[in-house]
Amino acid sequence: MRAGLASLIKKRDELDLVGEAGSREQALHLVQASKPDVIVMDLRSITAEELDAPKAVRTASAKSRILLLMDDSDEGEVFATLATEADGYCLREAEFDKIFSAIQTVAAGEFWLDSGIARKVVKALLDTMAILATDPQDFKNDTVESDELSPRELEVLSLVSKGLSNLKIADKLGISAETVKTHIRHIMKKLVVSDRTQAAVKALKRGLI
């Protein structure tokens, strides 16, 4: 994939390919030496080390902009990747014209988010708003006996990370949608996050799900 993308970049007069790397170490060395305007990255897996790679690259060249290529099949991985705080996110299976547009947008100092990824983000935001809108005081008044997630909460969180709605989680676990909302509120409090997206990301980083 890297070779194919490099070949296409070389064919565009507007772009200048300064190098390519197949490992984190190679990338850091290349970035430090060339200080590119834009760095196109593709994380190999959603692990703590891989998710830290964009930060390490940015440290090596603070002015470089980062465009991450990603997959949107697993919602939990989508949110974990978004947490890297790159300057743009594009689906790796996108046509090169779209990737080219993403590179240009990021290079111009603007943010790029693929429409397919944006839909998942909006859906997660609406689900969180639905949880908090039921009764604004519920979130403040909920009490939890322990900071550790219960087996049921881990089940709920695992399904949240896969993109299931509250109703689908309820159907799958044989509980009510209101009970699902209560579990998610407890999860958010225990993980000290403000929405279900952050909860999924934090759980993935900790290896809880």
Overview in brief:
With 209 residues, this protein is α/β, with parallel strands linked by helices. Helix content is 58%, strand content 8%.
State the strand order across the main sheet: 1-2-3-4
Mean pLDDT: 83
Major beta sheet, specifics?
4 strands, parallel
Number of strands: 4
Structural class by sheet pairing and helices: alpha/beta
Helix content: 55-70%
Features:
2 domains; 209 residues; single chain; four-stranded parallel sheet; Rossmann fold; alpha/beta; 4 strands; 12 helices; Arc Repressor Mutant, subunit A
How is this structure best described in words?
The protein is an alpha/beta fold. 58% of the residues lie in helices and 8% in strands. 30% of the residues are buried. It has twelve helices and four strands; from the N terminus they run H-H-E-H-H-E-H-E-H-E-H-H-H-H-H-H. The model has no long low-confidence stretch (mean pLDDT 83). The chain folds into two domains: 2-113, Rossmann fold, CATH 3.40.50.2300; 119-206, Orthogonal Bundle (Arc Repressor Mutant, subunit A), CATH 1.10.10. A four-stranded parallel sheet has the order 1-2-3-4.
